[in-house]
Design brief:
Largest sheet: 5 strands, parallel
InterPro entries: Bact_response_regulator (IPR050595), CheY-like_superfamily (IPR011006), Sig_transdc_resp-reg_receiver (IPR001789)
Protein name: Response regulator receiver
GO biological process, one term: phosphorelay signal transduction system
Distance between the termini: 13 Å
Number of strands: 5
CATH class: Alpha Beta
CATH superfamily: Response regulator
Order of helices and strands: EHEHEHEHEH
Radius of gyration: 13 Å
Organism: Shewanella denitrificans (strain OS217 / ATCC BAA-1090 / DSM 15013)
Keywords: Phosphoprotein
CATH architecture: 3-Layer(aba) Sandwich
């Protein structure tokens, strides 16, 4: 059975690039435009992994990670932050919230797929 990955980013073009790479590797994808949208779409969905941006309107990625971790069904869902943020403090804030990996944009699809393969 193929795994489902949620892509959360306010950039439609970035979601598309990530989605194409993931689908090419055999994964199903669900897209969300920000943390609020992601939480709505997560409700009852069988999502195996989440890839999220940090800087987004309505609810940023780190706040979203904290909210996802409160959901019993997604408490252990691995989350990869895909972001332009490379500062150590942002990274440790993300890890403290529960993010399992940090991929900096611009990213290589292979690099992202390797991170996904490790966690899923």
């Amino acid at each position: 059975m193929s795994k489902t990955i949620m892509i959360v980013d306010d950039s439609a073009s970035l979601r598309q690039v990530v989605s194409i790479a993931l689908k090419g590797a055999g994964y199903n994808t669900i897209e969300a435009c920000d943390g609020v949208d992601a939480l709505k779409k997560l409700n009852g969905a069988a999502v195996n992994l989440i890839i999220s941006d940090v800087n987004m309107p309505n609810m940023d990625g780190i706040s979203m990670v904290k909210e996802v971790k409160k959901l019993p069904a997604h408490k252990f869902t691995p989350i990869i932050m895909l972001t332009t943020e490379s500062q150590a403090d942002k990274k440790s804030e993300g890890q403290a919230a529960g993010a399992r990996a940090w991929v900096v944009k611009p990213f290589q699809p292979q690099q992202m797929l390797a991170a996904v393969a490790k966690l899923i």
